[in-house]
Specification:
Number of helices: 29
Strand content: 5-15%
Structural class: mainly alpha
Low-confidence stretches: 12-18, 468-475, 527-542, 589-599
Distance between the termini: 108 Å
Shape: elongated
Helix content: 55-70%
């Protein structure tokens, strides 16, 4: 072999040896650039995975450690599945066992392990100890990473001011690391903290962060800013705009490779539908969402949303089960995280809808120390207004009306300061309800004043008018009145529109005369008075009643024609009602087609009126189980019928 040939072969061997090292260094550099400069978390994960495998084959411990730290990501708990979490932890522990325990790299790995463990457990002792160690070291990158990890583990409402201090310290550290991502994270944490504290100058911090992103985008940070934009649109009452922005937010998060992009937009839509009075529409989606492996281990907001949506949708078993799952052996054990206040708001609303005073009392006790805070969810993802509002609703549920009014008054003022207009409207509605329930001198006027103002605010936002029917009457009594050819039945904050029927006509009379016994024969004849104080009475089987009887007769004929063989019990009941209706219509007209009075047929009236009312109650329960359950417990039939609320 000539000298030239020998040299060429040697060069080739050197290239083969050097190639893996070059690829490894390139992969590490590309991963860091994707994470720190571009904010592209998906590309960062893919590149660091390649780097880890190359480093493992090369036996390069330092490179393995850097790659494992890169795989952990920008945030805490980016790996949500059991497999992903265990694999990351195993890699970090493995490289830690190979590193010099006193090195800065070992301290970085220990800080990451501490942060991941603390976040999953809802604690912070380990990461704060790691932060103290980082402060004692002379490595600015170690300090910056430990500060951001500690901040992420302290996102519960107990540490708002401490987080703000950490954010400022991180910004200072960024000037030593000269990593732009450290500066952006410091500004982002400062912005999130200011909104969490209800700082009136939060918008200034957001503006500074936007200016930085305009100079050079960072996809992961920009995703959080897009989420804050949705929250601010909700606060402004621009709910249609907010819904459009949720799609932009989700697309931004997906592009950045952020695992939270799906649920954040889902949580925002939950908030929008809540204020639109349409949350029950999301029940099928929420049933599936609560089981998603992509949800954070300490985020229970989807379960709370399911509880409220199920209660509103009439699925009381799911609502009660979800609420019980949240409460566990003690509601105080629910992990404190960035979503805790929003989750607790859901607990309070579900307890209110289910009438669970004990849960409401416990929630009140736990929320009390945070009355001055807004109920922000996640990193500024969504907002349900002032904590005072949840405290007021909890008090309303538990029957502490004076306390409810005090909190709801405060909620109106705090929500105004937050410029959260849908929350202002909601607080006014609940405040009016509390006034009506208490019923002291001046409360009726105060309640009407809140409703009048709420109606004006609702019109400005394009939201439904908060009329009385939408909220239900004061106190324990239901109300029933005609709306065209239908009946509007309302109780507390429940309201349902029912088709006309004989049973509904009977119920209307009973509900209009609470705690009074009315003969079934009088109900059947249309003679029941609306109450001596009202000085009016229903006419004897007039044209309206006759029309209702005839319409019911047509529906019974149709039902009988469609019934399957073997359904003899229901067929017999329907046939008996039909025969009774025919007899009544035949006997209703006197000479010259004049309506005449109902003969004294007490037993026949008892059977027919009881059946008609029970049919009406069954239909009401289908439309609104909570309202149906109230009426089934308070409406009594027999020879004498009554509505007897507690």
């Amino acid at each position: 072999m000539t000298g030239e040939a020998s040299q060429a072969a040697s060069n080739r061997r050197l290239e083969l040896v050097a190639q893996p090292t070059d690829r490894l260094m390139t992969a590490l550099a590309d991963g860091a650039h994707a994470r720190d400069v571009d904010g592209d978390l998906r590309t960062s994960r893919q590149t660091f995975e390649q780097a880890y495998q190359l480093a493992e084959r090369a036996g390069d411990v330092q490179a393995m450690a850097l790659a494992a730290l890169g795989l952990a990501g920008l945030w805490v708990s980016e790996r949500r599945t059991v497999t992903g979490t265990v694999l990351l932890e195993a890699r970090l522990e493995h490289v830690l066992s190979l590193l010099d325990p006193h090195s800065s790299l070992a301290l970085r790995v220990r800080a990451r392990l501490a942060g991941e463990a603390d976040y999953r457990q809802g604690t912070h002792e380990a990461i704060l100890a790691a932060l103290d160690a980082a402060r004692a070291a002379a490595d600015p990158e170690l300090l910056a990473e430990a500060l951001s990890l500690a901040h992420h583990c302290l996102l519960d409402p107990d540490h708002v001011e401490r987080r703000r201090e950490l954010a400022v310290e991180l910004i200072k550290a960024s000037f030593r690391t000269k990593r732009r991502s450290d500066l952006l994270m410091g500004l982002l944490w400062q912005t999130v903290d200011s909104y969490s504290a209800g700082d009136p100058h939060a918008g200034r911090y957001l503006g500074e962060l936007r200016d930085q992103l305009e100079q050079q985008n960072h996809m992961a940070v920009a995703f959080v800013v897009s989420a804050i934009d949705v929250m601010l649109a909700i606060r402004a009452g621009r709910l249609d705009d907010a819904e459009s922005l949720t799609r932009i937010c989700a697309a931004s998060g997906a592009a950045a490779g952020d695992i939270d992009h799906d649920w954040w937009s889902g949580a925002q839509l939950v908030t929008i539908r809540w204020y639109q009075g349409r949350l029950a529409e999301l029940l099928p989606v929420l049933r599936h969402r609560v089981h998603s492996p992509d949800l954070s281990a300490v985020d229970n907001s989807s379960v709370a949303a399911l509880a409220v949506a199920a209660a509103l949708g009439g699925d009381l078993r799911t609502a009660a089960s979800s609420l019980s799952a949240l409460c566990g052996s003690d509601l105080a054990r629910l992990p404190r995280s960035s979503s805790w206040l929003g989750t607790m708001n859901g607990v309070v609303e579900a307890a209110y809808l289910l009438g669970d005073a004990s849960v409401a009392d416990r929630a009140y006790e736990l929320l009390g120390p945070y009355a001055s805070l807004p109920m922000l969810g996640g990193l500024g993802v969504t907002c349900f207004g002032s904590v005072h509002q949840a405290l007021g609703v909890a008090s309303l549920t538990a029957g502490h009306l004076d306390r409810a009014i005090d909190h709801l008054r405060a909620a109106v003022q705090h929500n105004l300061a937050l410029a959260h207009w849908p929350a202002v409207l909601a607080a006014r509605q609940r405040l009016a309800q509390a006034y009506r329930r208490r019923g002291q001198q001046g409360d009726a006027d105060a309640g009407r004043g809140e409703l009048k103002t709420a109606a004006s605010e609702a019109a400005a936002m394009g939201l439904p008018d908060p009329d009385e029917d939408a909220r239900g009457p004061a106190g324990p009594y239901a109300e029933c009145r005609r709306v065209g050819r239908k009946w509007r039945l309302a109780w507390r904050d429940r309201s349902v529109l029912m088709e006309e029927s004989i049973g509904m006509a009977h119920l209307a009379v009973l509900v209009a005369n609470p705690r009074q016994e009315i003969l079934a024969a009088d109900l059947a004849a249309g003679l029941a008075a609306l109450g001596a104080a009202r000085g009016s009475a229903h006419p004897v089987l007039d044209e309206v009643a006759i029309a209702e009887y005839r319409n019911r007769l047509k529906r019974l004929d149709a039902e009988l024609a469609q019934r399957e063989p073997g359904d003899e019990e229901d067929r017999g009941a329907a046939q008996a009602e039909r025969e009774w209706l025919v007899a009544q219509l035949a006997g209703a007209a006197g000479f010259g087609s004049r309506v005449r009075s109902f003969p004294d047929q007490g037993e026949r009236a008892r059977v027919a009126v009881g059946k008609a009312i029970r049919r009406a109650l069954a239909r009401i329960a289908e439309a609104d189980p909570i309202l149906g359950d109230h009426l089934r417990q308070t409406v009594h039939t027999g020879v004498r019928c009554s509505y007897w609320p507690s």
